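Weekly modeling sync, notes
Attendees: S.R. (lead), two postdocs, one rotation student

Agenda item 3: backlog of single-chain predictions. S.R. asked that every request posted to the team notebook include the full sequence so nobody has to chase files. The rotation student volunteered to paste the first one in as an example of the format we agreed on. Action items at the bottom.

Example entry:
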Amino acid sequence: MASIIDALEERLLQYLLEQETKKTWEEWLQWLADLDCPLTFEKPPHVPNRPFSFQTWLAACEQQLISNQEWQARLSTPAWLKRQQITVMPIILKRGDSQIPGIAEIGGLNSEMARLIDQIHTVQQRLIHLEKGSSQSSKKTVGQSASQQIPAVPVANVTFPGSGLSDPLGRPDLARTLEREQQMLNKTGETKNGPNSKADKDSTEPQIVSLKEAYLSYNRWCDQFEEVHLNLEEFVNGELRVLSSHQISFQQFSHRILKKAKEVKELEHILESFTRLRAGGVDINMEESPGTVEVTNSVTDE
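Predicted structure, as returned to the notebook:
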């Protein structure tokens, strides 16, 4: 099991990544205008319509900056960016390489925690269904038998801010999973008497499928990576997302995206990190990101 130092290193890495400044294309241009920058930039077609990092913006404008060495020097100086309150993270920190101390042990523990959470969620959903037509005594019996099937896991006594949920290793994706579990239970309690309660519950209920058996569209796989803070756009040439795609496996998705890689080794590190983080399975009912919905709607309109 990972030591306390390893856990701290993992938390520090995630903390640093969460501080990175991200803006949309228009917001980056407005930031330059506020600094009285005389340059104008045309938006490349592959730039996404959602917030992205400074490196992604700089790469898109590199050719247009060649003619102005003064601003080229400013925009590539960390000290100057810091004075402008822009936080930039080195790409090497975003890879999640296996060289990080204890990451293998932490990843294994995180996978086990995710598996247990899935079991707990399944039992909770069964209890909710039984609640409608069962007596209080029968519900108590089912709850006791269900709790006996779930092994106890020692968890450090650390509270996740704002939610009251345990966050033993500081993983944001695990914390979000716990928060999503709590939010779903609250939503079920509030709407179970409504006329559309069954439809609402079915539409938001997570469905965890092992990584080898999961089949999603290309853009939905991209959503899965964003869910665990792995930004694929910084590692591929051209536009990340596609206009349409049939459902494919993770292996097929990996093969397709590696064809777009700027550096194959770097992108392989990202794919390996995702495999570790989602060793317990992926939620194929996860809500689509705005980028995926936008692409889907555009294809439908055509």
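Discussion: group reviewed the output briefly. Residues 97-101, 155-171, 197-202 have pLDDT under 50 and may be disordered.
Action items: rotation student to repeat for the remaining queue; S.R. to check formatting next week.
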